[in-house]
Automatic annotation (TrEMBL):
The lineage of its organism: Bacteria, Pseudomonadati, Pseudomonadota, Alphaproteobacteria, Rhodobacterales. It comes from Celeribacter neptunius. It comes from the Bacteria. Residues 125-206 form the EthD domain. NCBIfam families: EthD family reductase (TIGR02118). One of its GO terms (molecular function) is oxidoreductase activity. This is EthD domain-containing protein.
Length: 223
């Protein structure tokens, strides 16, 4: 599965807009070539559950568009069949960047609306290659996260292309999606023995983790 995500900073608080009442505009923003789309409104940008070096990216929303393969995503992009802001009115968008990801579902997420969704931007250590980052994340780290108590869903999104810094390095190497029943379960999961082991392993290949609690709005298809 391929996912295109929009990393959005807004000019105003989205909770004070009527955007989410306009379902038709959101559907048009997804387009017919996507398998589905999700608009994730950020409701908390603290490091929920963890104490870890945080990057400088602060977001107000993260959009997701799902495609069966890269070819389909490129066709949709070239045809302009989906809107990266998912129909969010232009004046509300202060800044927006896109990332193209390879999605790996480790634990199938719950039905939309059940539990709490937590998304995290990962940036690899500069001394770790892209190949080693993927190996560590998809193999041992994935197994460790899967064992977190109370975990209800887990997806890894390996960034294939996205924004780069002035030195040409990727600014986002991975996007994590975790689901838990509630905030207390997130805290207790990462304070557990397996949670401590998981974060110790993270330091071997991840430089920064920037975490966001989100409120997902599913437009069509996958959540």
């Amino acid at each position: 599965m391929i996912t295109v995500m929009g990393l959005i900073q807004t000019a105003t608080d989205l909770s004070e807009t009527s955007y989410f009442d306009n379902e038709e505009a959101m559907r048009r923003g997804v387009g017919d070539l996507c398998l589905g789309g999700v608009f994730n409104r950020v409701v908390d940008n603290s490091q929920k559950g963890i104490s870890y070096a945080r990057g400088g990216v602060e977001l107000d929303a993260i959009t997701q568009f799902f495609f069966p393969d890269i070819s389909a995503s490129m066709t949709a992009a070239s045809m302009g069949s989906f809107n990266l802001s998912m129909g969010l009115p232009g004046p509300l968008v202060a800044e927006m960047q896109s990332i193209l990801c390879l999605q790996n579902t480790v634990v199938e997420p719950p039905v939309l609306g059940q539990g709490l969704k937590r998304m995290s931007i990962l940036r690899k250590r500069p001394d770790v290659s892209s190949e080693e980052f993927q190996k560590q994340w998809f193999e041992l780290h994935g197994l460790l996260v899967k064992r977190l108590p109370g975990l209800a869903g887990y997806r890894q999104n390996l960034v294939l292309d996205g924004p780069r810094d002035e030195d040409g390095h990727m600014m986002v190497d991975g996007m994590v999606e975790l689901w838990f029943p509630d905030g207390e379960t997130i805290d207790s999961a990462f304070q557990s023995d397996i949670g401590n082991t998981t974060m110790m392993h993270a330091k071997e290949f991840i430089a920064e983790i920037s975490t966001f609690l989100v409120e997902p709005h599913c437009v069509r298809g996958l959540s």
